[in-house]
Specification:
The chain has eleven helices and 14 strands. By secondary structure, it is an alpha+beta fold. A five-stranded mixed sheet has the order 10-9-8-11-12. The structure holds zinc ion (ZN).
């Protein structure tokens, strides 16, 4: 299992100069490689030409033509070629339909003004010890790393990146696979994700929404306005841009901190966890909700929960997004088609009273337990359609529960 630890790094001015130079080198080499690759392809279409050939060609001329690349570790250039190679092969795999997910675009030239500035170092030359990092051609970056390495194992690679005017180091470590204890399946829980209350658990626990960006909207507007008024590229423009960047970074930290606390607590407290398989990308297309959904960052929450369950003894079961979790009465099995957007509570015709979110969490838990006992074969069609999507419950309409649910969240 490969895990990454990313943390802040506070370089001295001298070290920051090196980092900026290395970012520039990585970008230059990537762009050089891409231009060369295009040239080769247009001249002789059929000869294979990849990152290794590009690297060889570059190494032969670099001392003559680009002597400044020698000022930084040679891994920087090497990794830029590998990155380009990966981008090219991802593109061709995507063109040939061999790659899942969104279509990959043809690699673009990297801009000096892009938000993503980074370079990579190989494991054989870097050294890591408590709060310190050894970088080739620079030396020890001593006592300048915010946290000491969280994982123990073989270091695979180191990436140094910049966001606004802050620097980060990400260290990937190969860890031995932990034989996780077998889940006892006794402590089960269902999680209903919402916008007003971020998550409601079937045992009654609630995680309130933080809405970090919504609360900071006025500040965000002010920062954007200041940036717009300043002359692009000027010193004051860069100051404003860095301030805006730091604001976005802070929001991201608040979100991730909230998600980490909640997911750690959940993954450690239960054996079997049921959660809805939400189509977040699809829901963000609903413009009324996009802001709130992005602010709630469910996908990050689910991603963290997945890997934390992998480490703890918990089993995570994703319940089909068409499962009518909030509409189903667990007592009599009736599905309440009349449940409207505003109904926070409802009474079933059998007399049972339900709190909407809590009932949904209960139903998700029960469905997860059922699925865990008789695992269903996953269908390849993620956006299941048609009449036979989920045959388990009688009287279920073919329509999308998620679509209705996402509508329902407007009512909050
Ligand atoms: Zn009922």
């Amino acid at each position: 299992m490969i895990k990454a630890h990313k943390t802040r790094i506070n370089p001295t001015e001298e070290q920051a100069v090196y980092f900026r130079k290395a970012c520039g080198t990585a970008r230059f080499v990537y762009n050089y490689g891409l231009a060369e690759w295009k040239r080769h392809k247009s001249e002789n279409r059929d000869t294979p030409f990849g990152p290794m050939a590009l690297k060889k060609e570059f190494n032969a001329i670099k001392r003559e033509r680009f002597p400044w690349v020698l000022e930084v570790a040679k891994d920087v250039a090497e990794n830029a070629f590998f990155q380009l190679g990966a981008a090219l092969s991802n593109f061709s795999a995507s063109q040939q339909g061999k790659r899942k997910g969104k279509k990959v675009e043809f690699p673009k030239f990297k801009s000096k003004h892009s938000r993503k500035q980074a370079f990579h170092l190989n494991n054989d030359k870097v050294k890591v010890r408590d709060h310190e990092l050894y970088v080739p051609c620079l030396g020890w970056v001593a006592r300048r790393i915010a946290e000491s390495l969280r994982f123990s194992g073989k270091i695979m690679s180191v990436t140094i990146s910049r966001r606004a005017d802050l620097w980060f180091v990400s260290i990937t470590v190969e860890m031995e696979k932990i034989d996780k204890p077998k889940s006892t399946g006794r402590r089960t829980v269902g999680i209903d994700l919402g916008l007003k209350t971020f998550a409601v658990l079937s045992d009654g626990a609630r995680f309130e929404s933080q809405k970090p960006l919504r609360h900071g909207r006025r500040k965000l507007r002010r920062l954007n306005r200041t940036l717009a008024r300043r002359k692009k590229g000027s010193k004051r423009w860069w100051d404003a841009r860095n301030k805006l960047g730091r604001f976005h970074y802070r929001v991201a930290c608040l979100r991730s901190d909230f998600a980490h606390k909640a997911t750690t607590q959940i993954a450690e407290s239960y054996d079997l966890i049921g959660i809805e398989d939400l189509n977040v990308a699809g829901m963000v297309k609903n413009r009324k909700l996009a802001f709130s959904i992005s602010d709630a960052s469910w996908s990050e929450f689910v991603r963290q929960l997945e890997y934390k369950c992998e480490q703890s003894a918990a089993t995570l079961v994703k319940v089909n997004r068409f499962f009518p979790s909030s509409r189903l009465c667990p007592k009599c099995g009736t599905i309440n088609h009349e449940l409207t957007l505003k109904d926070r509570e409802w009474v079933c015709e059998c007399g049972a009273a339900h709190d909407r979110d809590l009932n949904a969490a209960h139903n998700i838990r029960d469905e997860a337990v059922r699925l865990n006992q008789c695992p269903v074969v996953a269908t390849s069609d993620k956006n299941a359609r048609g009449p036979n999507v989920r045959p388990a419950l009688a009287g279920s309409p073919g329509g999308s529960e998620t679509a209705r649910r996402s509508g329902a969240h407007i009512a909050h």
